[in-house]
Amino acid sequence: MEVREVDLPGVGKKFAVRTAEGDRLTIIIHNTGHREIYSFREGEDFPFHAIRLEDEEARKLSAILGGAYFQPAVAGSVELLLEQLSIEWLRVAPDSRLAGATIGALEIRKRTGVSVIAVLREGRMVPSPQPDEEIRAGDTLVVAGSREQVDRFLAFARGGQR
């Protein structure tokens, strides 16, 4: 696959993609977080289809495409591991039980089994956050675990577990 990246000042980034079969896509990631995907027919300069995704939708689609939910049987042993891995993004609401508490105080891993692998905050990322990292309203938590662990985390985050 061929990918060309272009900065769009004041807008975000544009990625022009050509697949091995010659299909063309243009993906625009806006500074606001939403994404636009345009599909082009061979030899045409104007897209025949466009999709707009909000940030959380794009991240969920990325997890699906990346194999977090399903991996074809033809894949090797590394892919088998990825089939068992689920990654989820959760935006923390102001009234969430998570807001204002640290990862360690919430005992997220102990209670649910997931690992918080990143915190997205105000356009930046806190990778591999430490237990003393305070979760704030508006943060997006990126967690990884089995599907069951992720489901437990979502229930816990929404108040289903104490």
Brief characterization of the structure:
With 162 residues, the protein is α+β, with helices and mostly antiparallel strands. It has five helices and nine strands, in the order E-E-E-E-E-H-H-E-H-H-E-E-E-H.
Which structural traits does this protein have?
single chain; 162 residues; alpha+beta; five-stranded antiparallel β-sheet; four-stranded antiparallel β-sheet; 5 helices
SSE map:
Blueprint: E1 2-8, E2 12-18, E3 24-30, E4 35-40, E5 49-53, H1 55-65, H2 77-83, E6 86-91, H3 103-106, H4 108-112, E7 115-121, E8 124-127, E9 140-145, H5 147-157
Antiparallel strand pairs: 1-2, 2-3, 3-4, 4-5, 6-9, 7-8, 7-9
Q: Residue share in helices?
A: 10-25%
Please count the helical segments: 5
Rg over CA atoms, rounded to whole Å, is 18 Å
Strand pairing plus helix content: what structural class? alpha+beta
- Main sheet makeup: 5 strands, antiparallel
Range of strand content: 25-35%
What would the average pLDDT be, to the nearest integer? 85
* Cα separation of the termini: 46 Å
User: Largest sheet, order of strands side by side?
Assistant: 1-2-3-4-5
Q: What's the total number of strands? A: 9
Outline type = elongated
The ordered string of helix (H) and strand (E) elements is EEEEEHHEHHEEEH
Regions with little confidence, pLDDT below 50 for 5+ residues? 75-80
